C-alpha cells in the first residue's frame, strides 16, 4: 500500500495537468475565435 500511494498520486496529478491543459487550450481557442469572429447576432 505504501508503494501504490505515490503512484496513484502521480497518475492523478498527470490527469489533472492534462485536463487543465485541455481546458486552457479550449478557452484560448474560444477567446481567440471571439476576437477573430465577434458575435453577429444582428446579421
Low-confidence stretches: none
Distance between the termini: 62 Å
Overall shape: it is rod-shaped
Helix content bin: over 70%
Class by helix and strand content? mainly alpha
The total count of strands amounts to 0
Give the helices and strands as they follow along the chain: H
SSE topology sketch:
Layout: H1 4-36
Could you characterize what this model shows?
- This protein has 43 residues and is an all-alpha fold.
- It is 77% helix and 0% strand.
- The longest helix is centred in the middle third of the chain and has 33 residues, at 4-36.
- The mean pLDDT is 81.
In short:
With 43 residues, this protein is mostly helical. The chain has one helix spanning 4-36.
Overview features:
mainly alpha, single chain, 0% strand, 43 residues, rod-shaped
